[in-house]
UniProtKB/TrEMBL annotation:
This is TolC family protein. Residues 1-19 form the signal peptide. One of its GO terms (molecular function) is porin activity. Keywords: Cell outer membrane, Membrane, Signal, Transmembrane, Transmembrane beta strand, Transport. GO terms for cellular component: cell outer membrane; efflux pump complex. It comes from the Bacteria. It holds the Pfam family OEP. Transmembrane segments: none annotated. It comes from Spirosoma agri. Belongs to the outer membrane factor (OMF) (TC 1.B.17) family. PANTHER family: OUTER MEMBRANE PROTEIN TOLC. It is found in: Cell outer membrane.
Length: 486
């Protein structure tokens, strides 16, 4: 572990309504963001939605048992009846024509058709002559089979599992994006808190040095110009402090809003006391491993395969739907009628039905070819787009891996520079008190001290953002050498 010697710059932003301060680390904020932020909850809801969509898809390929009918179906009216001589007579009717149908069906993904078994019972009551008739199908077996047509079910069985796997990885990516966004807001507030601490320290130091300079002026050890320069530094420090407080308050509000933080029981908002994440794990990332994990885990990689498959599907659809379209409908079973329900099941007769429907385009003026060629052109465009996306994806990973190694070194160097600048400022302050250093040199030491402190915090921010970016791009934790799962 690389240990940074800056120390923990933890600062509570004061406000008249705030009763307490909550100390948080970067990992604490990320965990809260994943569980509590609106973005995290939206990702969880979307995952649940995609799960039930996939369950619906799977259910379509399971046997479906259904009961349908009309019970009762009563009619009382006058109906038009054409007579043998061509005239029309309106005859009264009063009947009940009820029907129940129980069916078990099964889709066949391999052929795109479906089969079913059926049981049906019908009752007809004529209330004008008080008669009742029954008609029924004790058993029937049927088949509906498209011929020479596009098979949507076959393609769905190939694309939908990819789509579901893609959605699962998108959920993980969404939580990693939450972590990256929370990291950015965390460091926005941390930088604001450090600037606030620097401003408060500079104001206190300038007040002290101004008082010391007043005594030195009385003793004739400094000039009036040096005293005025220190007085100006006091005023500038007060302005910087007011600006830093405002910036810190805004940054705190943004982080609190993102975390969806609520007020306590007294209607007061907790303020965040952020810990500087100075401990960095010493691990290395192999470029080839990062690329392999990215193409194995990222939803984009799954999406590449899905898009190519969908392009092949569209070509197949355009080719088959522009030619002969036919469908076979066939049924075999038993049927009967009678005055009682039992008559339906007593020595039923055969029931057969066979039908082939077809449509054959003869003259389309090139429409069929145009549709097919359009689908093929879109397929080529998809292949080219996916190939370009793969190259861009690989370049992103390569850039982030090399950047992470460089930023880890930057953190170490800026930490050392910060320690040196702090020590140098302390020496310069002591020398000024002893009248061994000019006001100008003291001001330079102060600026170097502040700049080094800010550079150290900004280097940490860049490192942690790159760290969570490489996690997002690969969905792999290189610290623990395992895939990221939630």
């Amino acid at each position: 572990m690389i240990r940074w010697s800056i120390g923990l710059f933890c600062l509570a932003i004061t406000h008249v309504t705030v009763a307490q301060t909550q100390k948080l680390t970067l990992s604490d904020v990320i965990q809260v963001a994943r569980e509590q932020s609106i973005a995290g909850k939206q990702a969880a809801t979307l995952k649940k939605t995609n799960y039930w969509k996939y369950r619906t898809f799977l259910a379509d390929f399971k046997p479906q048992l259904s009961l349908d009918g009309s019970l009762p179906s009563f009619t009382r009216s006058f109906v038009q009846v054409t007579q043998p001589d061509g005239t029309i007579a309106f005859q009264p009717v009063s009947n009940n024509n009820s029907i129940l149908n129980l069916s078990l069906s099964q889709n066949i993904a391999l052929t795109g058709g479906s089969i079913y078994v059926q049981h049906q019972l019908q009752r007809f009551d004529n209330f004008l002559n008080n008669s009742t008739l029954y008609n029924g199908i004790p058993f029937a077996f049927g088949l509906t089979q498209p011929l020479f047509r596009f098979n949507q079910m076959k393609w769905d069985r190939r694309t939908e599992p990819l789509r579901y796997a893609e959605s699962n990885q998108q959920y993980i990516e969404a939580l990693e994006q939450v972590a990256l966004d929370a990291t950015g807001l965390y460091f926005d507030l941390l930088v604001a808190q450090v600037n606030l601490q620097i401003a408060e320290t500079n104001r206190a130091n300038n007040d002290t040095l101004f008082k010391i300079a007043g005594h030195k002026l009385e003793l004739g050890k400094i000039s009036q110009n040096d005293l005025l320069q220190l007085q100006l530094s006091v005023l500038n420090a007060q302005k910087d402090l007011a600006s830093a407080r405002q910036t810190a308050e805004v940054a705190s509000l943004k982080l609190r809003s993102y975390l969806n933080a609520r007020t306590n029981g007294q209607g007061q908002q907790q303020q965040f006391d952020l810990v500087v994440p100075t401990q960095l794990s010493a691990f290395s990332i192999d470029i080839s491993q990062a690329l392999a994990e990215a193409f194995a885990n990222r939803s984009d990689a799954i999406g590449f395969s899905r898009k190519l498959l969908e392009a092949d599907r569209d070509v197949d659809k355009a080719r088959k739907e522009n030619g002969l379209n036919a469908s076979l409908n066939a049924a075999f079973g038993l049927s009967n009628r009678g005055n009682r329900p039992s008559d339906v099941y007593n020595r039923p007769q055969d029931r057969e039905f066979v039908e082939i429907q077809f449509v054959l385009p003869i003259m389309t003026w090139g429409r069929a070819q145009a549709r097919t060629e359009t689908a093929r052109a879109n397929q080529q465009l998809t292949v080219q787009t996916v190939e370009q996306a793969k190259r861009t994806f690989e370049q992103q990973i390569y850039t982030q891996v090399t950047l992470l190694d460089m930023l880890r070194q930057q953190v170490k160097l800026t930490a050392e520079a910060d320690q040196i600048a702090q020590n140098r400022y302390q020496i310069a302050q002591d020398r000024f008190k002893l009248s061994d250093l000019s006001v100008t040199d003291l001001g330079i030491a102060t600026q170097d001290k502040d700049r080094a402190r800010r550079d150290a915090i900004l280097a940490l921010r860049d490192y942690w953002q790159a760290f969570y970016t490489i996690r997002l791009l690969t969905l792999y934790d290189f610290e623990t050498n395992q895939k990221i799962n939630y």
